[in-house]
Fold:
Amino acid sequence: MKVFIVHAHPEPKSFNASMTRLAVEVFEGGGHDVVVSDLYAMGWNPVTGPHNFTSRKDPAVFKQQIEEAHAVETNGFSPDVQAEIEKLFWCDALIFQFPLWWFAMPAILKGWVDRVYAFQRVYGGGKWYDHGTMRGKRAMASVTTGGPASMYEETGLAGDMNMLLAPVNQGVFRYVGFDVLPPFVAWSPARSAEADRARMLAAYRERLLAWENTQPITYPPLSAYDP
Ligand code: FAD
Structure:
């Protein structure tokens, strides 16, 4: 298996960093190949714009999707975007590792999606959901929180975690055809005792070892969509 981890945390000593290191250890230990994009360490620029391209279809007016379609035809993506697109197509397994920030993924990771998910390459022209470019591959969000699990229940103070993660699971992973594994959530590691953090990492190890046998989330089939 070829595993691609997009890691979004600025601190190498963080719990998120420990989770990514664990994932690398588990998958490499199982004989798999692993590539990590450590976005902060790479100095990833999350701001999308004309700099995504080495040449322009329309230098007068910038429309990202027009330029993306042009870049597909002319091999015209900037080297940073091109490198990430290649990793995405290379992998069979994708993990987004991130802390929940303001009920969402950190801006640096959202900006990775904004720039790397290129029209007519990663999606577009009928390539979406069941017909997506990533069909047959699996993806998972691995998330840490500040709040406890009780806060993120359906009727909890902060609302249902599955709803908060829908933009990642359904909007980013499923949209391009990934089979989406249930998210792994490490609840409130900073407010937990050392032994509880160790238990979270042990549970994460088990989830990773079960990667190929985990039942993906069920989504409506594309065939049922009647606009
Ligand atoms: P860290 O604080 O880095 O780590 C927690 C503890 O684990 C530390 O003591 C660390 O030393 C220890 N640790 C590291 N590695 C190991 C290891 N291998 N074994 C054992 N212990 C280890 N929370 C919410 O719930 N909802 C929000 O909407 C939200 N918004 C936020 C917005 C911002 C901008 C910020 C900064 C925080 C927000 N938070 C929110 C809180 C945030 O989600 C948590 O602080 C974060 O998820 C905790 O993960 P971490 O990796 O940063 O933990």
User: Anything to note?
Assistant: The chain has one domain: 2-224. The chain is about 35% helix and 15% strand.
